[in-house]
Amino acid sequence: MRLFYIVLISILFQSCSFDDKTGIWKNETSSYTKNKKNDLFNEFENFSLSQKAFTKIIPITQKFKFKLTNPYIANAWNDIYFDQSNNTKNFKYNELNKITFKSKKITKYKINDYILFDKENLITSDIRGNIVIYSSKNNKLIAKFNFYKKKYKKIDKYLNLFVNNNTVYVSDNLGYLYAYNLITNEILWAQNYKIPFRGNIKIFNDKLIAANQNNNLYFFNKYSGKILKLIPTEETIIKNKFKNNLSLNKNSLFFLNTFGSLYSINLENLNVKWFINLNDYKNSNTNNLFNGSKIVNSNNKIIISSNQFTYIIDSNTGSIINKFNFSSLVKPLIIEKYLFLISKMGLLITVDLDNNNIIFSTDINQNISNFLKVKKYKIDIKNINILNNKIYIFLKNSYYLQYNLDGKLLNIKKLPSKINSYPIFIRGSILYLDFKNRLSVIN
Fold it and tell me: Is the model's pTM score more than 0.90?
């Protein structure tokens, strides 16, 4: 009977979606509504947590001053998370919020959530397995390449992409690994490893790094796709939405698997340096579902969120420096010595990584309510970025929130075209694909 009430409560929470005249509260895409209906088990997981989540509002002290370097101008976006560390930067943005370019539809099929940009070309993929290359400079489709045979035509393909030296490296959910040359538009090599790959790709020197759904970590020769080394880790029997994740610093690879274990690998000799398990459950076993955030690392510190906690970890030793009782809703980011994240409770939180103290925490939904002078409702957050020394929070309904670094909401604006893919930031502009698979460039 108790289980029935828990499930009933979770359903009611999911159905609490409201709208206001501004449209800020409403996600305007039908696909997200469908996803919400499939999130029942994830919500049940949240109700089973043993420790109360962090909900405290902490104002910034008047004496505190952020110290950031000048905004960074990016010319390329070769990794889906921009950087090998999975971290981003304080990007330059012209803040005009006007469309300077919109392409025609680049594919008729559902596209990847992530886009790449290299040498004036947008690079992405769709569920039919097409690698799509579109020239923003010449406003035309350069190539649409499909590696797969007819027998795979009706199977949805999910491609993980990484661009390096005019080559797109691809792993997929069918177990294929291959390299596609952007200049000659041909396959350089291809291997079939049978078991689906699950997670992002990294490259270190001549090594291509990926992991499969069984949490086996592979190092491949990037010129042939041949295995250099395999490191098996804990496999989970039940698969959830969380994908294993890779992050690099100068000489180490950090691998977070779906069991909740974090590994540090020496990139020179490919040996395991240390590992820890971050699964919050007291009795960890292969049936327990781990739900974490992507790894970000900077200045010898690793940031990871699990189901319930956010960890600051020493990247050299694997020791836990600090543990907060909040979990990140989207991929956090580190700018200089500051950690910015959005908790699952809807708080915008900033942490000083020098002393591990919270600089401020503020309720995003309450901020919007106060700004618009309406009732407090719930928004659907896509991601967080720092642009021009300001905090930008992009929403799934194509609005964005602009905050000062001190946590004050400055503005709420709507993008001039609806956003579908995750945005990237190139030479002062925001680039993304809309729901009609058209490239929008916002200046």
Answer: no
